[in-house]
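Hello, quick one for you while I still have it in my head. I'm working through a protein record and want to make sense of it properly. Would you mind checking whether the tokens look sensible for this chain? I owe you a coffee for this, so here goes:
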Amino acid sequence: MAENAAIPWLSHGWRLISADHARQRDCLSNGVRLRVLGDTRGFSLLEALIAAAILATALLSLAQLIAFAIRTTAAAGRMTDAALLAAQKVEELRAGSWAELQPGTDSPAAGFTRTWTVTPMGADPDYVMVLEVFVRAPGAQMQMVALKTKPSEP
């Protein structure tokens, strides 16, 4: 208390922050007053709200990215199935008799529609044909496979 009596402002709510008494005495001799305004541990409400807003924005962005990835993966799967169905039909047409090649349409799988055309080439219509196969997948654009082929040798 004797030390407090020598420093009258210490009894009016001002107190020293540092535990180092030599530094405190140096500050007092230079006329510097230090005051602790309150407990600075923890987070303020504003800091917590800002952190929650940043976290919510990040989670929303992540959810949109996941939804986009799922849609893109599904579309890629449909396109792959369409390409496989088109290639399958081209091989069926090539394996058949040259004289029996006719355009047509079928539905090889649920939701898929496959249309093919057979067109003789102008340069040599007896020996060169263009086989075009179009496959429409559900909810996707049309996939086309075109092949120029010659009849198989007997």
